[in-house]
Amino acid sequence: MTAVSAPGKVLLAGGYLVLDRAYTGLVFGLSARIHVLVRDRDASSSAESQRPEVVVQSPQFRDASWTYSYQLKTEKGGVDVIQLPGASRNPFVETALGYALTYISSVLLSPINPTSVTILADNDYYSQPSGSSTNSGNSNANGNTHFTDFGVRLQDAHKTGLGSSAALVTALTGAFLTHHLPPSAFSLSTAHGRARLHNLAQAAHCAAQGKVGSGFDVAAAVYGTCVYRRFSPSLLSSLGETGSPGFASRVRKLVDDEDSIWDTQVTKEGVAIPPGTALVMCDVDCGSQTVSMVKSVLAWRTSEPEGSKALWDSLQVSNEVLGRMLAEGRRQEDLEKAFADVRKKIREMGDRSGVPIEPVEQTKLLDALTKGVSGVVGGVVPGAGGYDAVALLVKDDKETLEELNSFLAKWSMEKKENLKLLGAKGELEGARQEPEEIYSGF
Ligand SMILES: Nc1ncnc2c1ncn2[C@@H]1O[C@H](COP(=O)(O)OP(=O)(O)OP(=O)(O)O)[C@@H](O)[C@H]1O
Ligand SMILES: C[C@@](O)(CCOP(=O)(O)O)CC(=O)O
């Protein structure tokens, strides 16, 4: 068995700006991971000898099993993946499989063995139907409480916005490349291997979601905590249609990047969480429409080019100051000021674009948290902002967590909201191969 996990993300600073290569995002990986386990299967049926199959299961959810048959296309079109009748489609699994198998087929000369795949999500990716303040989990039939049984279909689960699809595509791609290719052709532990995983996962994730975002979520899944400057979106336009003649060669060329066309910049040095503190997420459990928020902010940018540029340039400086102060582990007053400065400019961007990036309700919550809970150093509305969540830098001790939990319980009751502190914390490491033992029962 090969197991690879990839972390979730939080964009602490740089939402919207990171869509433009002129700016960067301060991205933190989270301890909540998506794990993908790949095992060889015996292809016993005669039909399978013609078209081998990959059987994928996500056992924490109902009706979450997908079987795909695959076949090499002619004229270097790559590997064609077709879902067999059964559950509804899962575009992220299907596309990531197609891209990974296509890349593998361009490297391996032998046929690709049929496999079974298990997807496991750490509990924080989804709000639990009921229960404690942290997502401690209901045990599965096999008694493993590490990966809770959510008891619902994937489409009915409440996401907490940690970037499940990017972590899934990255872990699945990393697990397939590790499983099928010899270490001389791919290794997750080398810089070259991670760069190829990044390139392939970005291409597959964009194809699956049908749009090219900034890709900070995939970068967090591959590299973990970093300062991220996006790739030029035009890089992906040369790929053409999946399965079209020459598709496999184009995927191989793009992923191996022998011509050094990828201009993504990922800096891990000088990004850190100050000693004695933790980066935590508070789930607000009521969603925002990120896509329409992005559209409106970008429309404002076009309509007010000079004013918006001046504000973004100034916000970029504040974001960099915050990143530097975190990395230097500066005293609480300095950090408080840096958070306040970022928030002020985010509110200005919200006012001027007419988009509730830090809505009044979130302003009240963040102000009350920073003033009312002694261990809270600062916080922001992460990513696109809105009503989804707040990210907080807090003292990493039991008293602060207890105080925070009781503050959130009281606030939820008074405001009739459902605020929950997630168990996930900011973590530096990106995608990694995992030992088999932690998956007992799966
Ligand atoms: N545990 C899982 N098992 C199988 N598929 C999953 C799993 N988690 C996520 N997915 C796939 O990813 C999709 C969710 O992706 P989407 O981009 O909507 O959410 P997200 O990445 O969590 O969002 P956000 O960027 O707001 O955090 C699901 O519909 C499914 O296709
Ligand atoms: C608005 C944007 O910059 C960040 C969105 O972040 P999130 O999905 O809210 O975590 C979009 C992007 O970077 O793709």
From TrEMBL:
What are this entry's molecular-function GO terms? ATP binding; phosphomevalonate kinase activity
Q: Which UniProt keywords apply?
A: ATP-binding, Kinase, Lipid biosynthesis, Lipid metabolism, Nucleotide-binding, Steroid biosynthesis, Steroid metabolism, Sterol biosynthesis, Sterol metabolism, Transferase
- According to the entry, every stretch annotated as the GHMP kinase N-terminal domain falls at 159-224
Of the GO CC terms on this record, one is: peroxisome
**Pfam families named among the record's database cross-references:** GHMP_kinases_N
Is DNA repair a UniProt keyword of this protein?
no
Stored InterPro entries: Erg8, GHMP_kinase_C_sf, GHMP_kinase_N_dom, Phosphomevalonate_kinase, Ribosomal_Su5_D2-typ_SF, Ribsml_uS5_D2-typ_fold_subgr
Listed under catalytic activity are:
(R)-5-phosphomevalonate + ATP = (R)-5-diphosphomevalonate + ADP
Q: In which pathway does it act?
A: Isoprenoid biosynthesis; isopentenyl diphosphate biosynthesis via mevalonate pathway; isopentenyl diphosphate from (R)-mevalonate: step 2/3
Main EC class of this protein?
transferase
UniProt superkingdom: Eukaryota
One GO biological process from the UniProt record? ergosterol biosynthetic process
Annotated EC? 2.7.4.2
The text of the family note is: Belongs to the GHMP kinase family. Mevalonate kinase subfamily.
Q: Mind telling me what this protein is named?
A: Phosphomevalonate kinase
Which organism is the protein's source?
Answer: Oidiodendron maius (strain Zn)
